[in-house]
Each structure stands twice: as C-alpha cells, then as structure tokens.
Specification:
There is one protein chain. By secondary structure, this protein is an alpha+beta fold. Helices cover 28% and strands 21% of the residues. It is built from seven helices and ten strands. The protein has helices spanning 4-17, 39-46, 121-130, 142-149, 156-160, 171-181, 194-213, and strands spanning 23-28, 53-57, 60-64, 69-73, 78-84, 93-99, 103-109, 115-119, 254-258, 261-265. It has a four-stranded antiparallel beta sheet, covered by helices on one side. A hairpin with a 3-residue loop joins strand 6 (93-99) and strand 7 (103-109). The structure holds a DNA duplex (16 and 16 nucleotides).
Length: 271
DNA sequence: AACGCGCCCTGTCCGC
DNA sequence: TGCGGACAGGGCGCGT
C-alpha cells in the first residue's frame, strides 16, 4: 500500500473534506474488512457521529469522532474515496459511509488486506504507544537511531520497515531512502556508523517529504481521496528499476529479496 | 525476545 | 490460447 506519503496525501485531502460531516449510515459489504467487530456493531458505533478531525498515525488514517476514533489501514490495495452520493462504483467496494450534504466515504480494496476499526480513547492510547517513531517528527534523531539500531542485527532495509521501530516506511521508500543515504540495504543495522545513520535519517526524511509534495507514488493501485494517481513514481531512483542505469553513477540497478520483499539498490553507490 | 517465514487475497504479467 | 508461477505500497501470527 500506501506508505507514509500516500496516506499523508489522503489524510490532507480528507482533512479538508470531512470535519463537520455527520455519518448518517453505514453499509458493510465485506465483513472481513472490519477488525474486531460485527458489521452491525461497527455500524452502531459510527452512525450519528460527527467527524471532528482526520490525522495520520504511521500508515493509518485516524478520524476523531469525539471520544471514539475510526481507523483505516489500506493494506496493499485499499482506497478511501470521498464521492457524491449516487456516484456509483461498486468495484471491490468493501464499505460505505453515507454522510450529510450529499457525500459518502467509500472504501474499496481488491485484495482485502486493509482493515477498518474503532478504538475508544483508552484503546487508542495503548495502540498508539505500540507504534514506533514518526520519521518526519523531531523525535527521529541520529541519537535515537544509534540507540535503536545498536540492538539489532537485522538488515537495515528490513529494520526500517518494522512499524514497531520506525513507522510509515514501506517497501518503496526503504529502498529509496537507503539509495539516497548511500547505504547497502543488506548491512546489519548495528554495523552502521554515526555518519551513515545520519545519512539514513536524512535520506528517509527527504524522500518522504518529496513524495508528499508529489502526492505519493502510484505503482499499481494507489489513488488519493479523489481517485487521482500520485506523481512520484517518475522520480523513483531504484524501486522497480532493476537492470536500468543508476541516475547517479550509470551503473546497473539490482534487485534482491529480503524478508520475502523485493529490494532495489545500486551496488556501486551503496556500501 | 528477536527474527524469519508463511499466509491472508485478487489480479496481472511472463515464460513455456 | 492456456496454464502455472512469481509478484504486487502491509501486517499478523506462528515457530524457533
């Protein structure tokens, strides 16, 4: 799915469209998308509630309903769209929230890896506490990285993708951030020098920020809250570029598999 | 305890 | 053209 920049793009769209809207009705077409509740139970917690705000935490969309929160994780192929009532598109439609003023919020998901669920205030605090540091926050420092990485022998690419450590970095931006850092994705996290950790921090932050500016990467399925593609794919340096020349050195971009996921890197730029 | 792997699903593409 | 296998922005639960 959607990694941090894609979720952030959707959240910024929703934050302009949804606050103040009331949920008038709930229709669940794929019950397996609802986490920890029956469709009726889920619907009962949402119906009549007003959406106060929309924020992002890690790769999750979080809507404050005043006390309880509605959370959405898009998995690999989830789409959360604001549409006009009657603007029908039933393709892989999983759930639909009717809003006031002729709008509805629709969740579509081909592979159905995504989830929707609600959390009470207390449960939200506990859930939030299990997640790692936000890479665009001031907490993502070289000092923090050094302390956290020192305890792990996992390959740095896999390390970056663990949401209990750093949130929001998925398969695309882990490869891209390490390319910018000039660090080999296979390096065990605890072998990185202070200077390399600083480059990893800066590389990850820069690529995430640029991707947000370009409204995210549409590789296959990603769409923003209005159904539009992101524009960052054209700016990827290594992801899905196996066999193509490296933009920086002209060498050949290579692919390898780590933890069952593809990693792309330039062996002559990354050490 | 940390880590690696299989699995959840559907769709698409590639090689034979 | 058909078919099997690999692979796709994620994350959970299991065994070691």
């Amino acid at each position: 799915m959607p990694e941090l920049p894609e979720v952030e793009t959707i959240v910024r769209d929703l934050a302009r469209l949804l606050p103040g809207r009331t949920i008038k009705g709930v229709e669940v077409l794929r019950p397996d998308l609802i986490e920890g509740d029956t469709p009726d139970g889920f619907a009962g917690k949402l119906r009549g509630r007003k959406i106060r705000s929309v924020v992002r935490r890690a790769k999750n969309i979080v809507m404050d309903l005043g006390g309880d929160r509605l959370l959405v994780n898009l998995g690999m192929t989830g789409r959360l769209l604001v549409a006009r009532t009657g603007d029908e598109d039933a393709t892989h439609l999983g759930a639909r929230l009717a809003l006031d003023r002729g709008r509805e919020l629709r969740y579509h998901d081909v592979r159905r890896f995504g989830r929707l669920w609600t959390l009470t205030d207390g449960a939200w605090t506990a859930w939030d506490g299990e997640l790692g540091v936000e890479p665009l926050s001031d907490d993502f420092t070289v000092d923090w990285l050094r302390g956290a990485a020192a305890r792990s022998r996992v390959a740095v690419k896999t390390w970056l993708m663990d949401q209990a450590r750093v949130v929001g970095v998925g398969n695309i931006y882990a490869s891209e951030g390490l390319f910018r850092a000039g660090v080999d994705p296979r390096r065990p996290a605890d072998t990185l020098s202070e200077a390399e950790l600083a480059r990893v921090r800066d590389g990850v932050r820069q690529v995430l920020a640029e991707a947000i500016e370009h409204r995210g990467t549409t590789f296959l399925d990603y769409r923003d809250a209005r159904g539009e593609e992101g524009a960052f794919a054209a700016r990827l340096k290594v992801y899905d570029r196996e066999g193509q020349p490296c933009d920086v050195c002209g060498g050949t971009v290579q692919r390898l598999v780590q933890g069952g996921r593809s990693t792309f890197f330039c062996p002559s730029c990354q050490h």
